[in-house]
Write a sequence for this structure.
């Protein structure tokens, strides 16, 4: 049994062949009903969300999706049937990438597509569209990972150091020199997302800063701040 998957992004496509488990084979392959070709209608593709975490898109993952479709049995009755399909989400895939299931077959014989069957219609393709789940720590900008670090006003003026854990589990010590402004960012090349269709290329890790200001200040502290003439430079 072969499953043909067309994977497309920005107009590019290629075929990927996978061999599912024996139990996924259909009990019986139904031949398409004969119709006048001029009367046959191709149903439009059916789109479904493929929710992926940032970790899924960083490491790659194998997904199992359950599809419920209507099929015409040997008695000509329309019945619901479930099928589980499996495919790989590749490292570096992005939001909006599409995985299209056009058709599946058995021992060289092609059966109907995965959409609903009905007389006079060619069933639709099933298209899964990658949806990236929001992440608690990161934002993704293309192939770059953006990490926001909150620091105090004192750390912004004097510099700081902290331990950072990457999405791949690696820990590193980050040293940020003074002075840090709201526009400051620290870039680490090659520590971002994997670049799709490339084995060893990665985007960048970008660390940006939220500067936390004091909520209140005492008269004594105001006098100290006023005495710091360099703040006016």
């Amino acid at each position: 049994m072969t499953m043909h998957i067309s994977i497309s992004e920005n107009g590019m496509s290629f075929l990927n062949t996978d061999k599912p488990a024996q139990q996924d084979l259909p009990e019986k392959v139904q031949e398409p009903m004969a119709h006048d070709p001029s009367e046959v209608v191709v149903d439009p593709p059916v789109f479904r969300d493929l929710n992926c975490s940032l970790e899924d898109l960083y490491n790659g993952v194998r997904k199992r999706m359950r599809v419920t479709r209507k099929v015409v049995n040997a008695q000509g009755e329309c019945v619901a049937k479930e099928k589980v399909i499996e495919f790989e989400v590749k490292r570096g895939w992005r939001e909006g990438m599409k995985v299209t299931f056009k058709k599946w077959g058995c021992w060289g014989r092609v059966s109907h597509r995965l959409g609903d069957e009905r007389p006079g219609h060619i069933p639709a393709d099933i298209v899964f569209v990658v949806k990236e789940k929001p992440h608690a720590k990161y934002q993704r900008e293309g192939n770059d990972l953006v990490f926001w670090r909150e620091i105090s006003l004192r750390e912004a003026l004097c510099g700081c150091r902290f331990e950072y854990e990457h999405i791949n589990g690696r820990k590193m010590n980050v040293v940020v020199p003074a002075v840090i402004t709201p526009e400051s960012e620290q870039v680490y090349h090659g520590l971002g997302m994997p670049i799709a269709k490339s084995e060893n290329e990665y985007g960048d890790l970008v660390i940006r800063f939220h500067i936390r200001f004091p909520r209140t200040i005492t008269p004594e502290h105001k006098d100290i701040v006023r005495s710091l003439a360099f703040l006016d430079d």
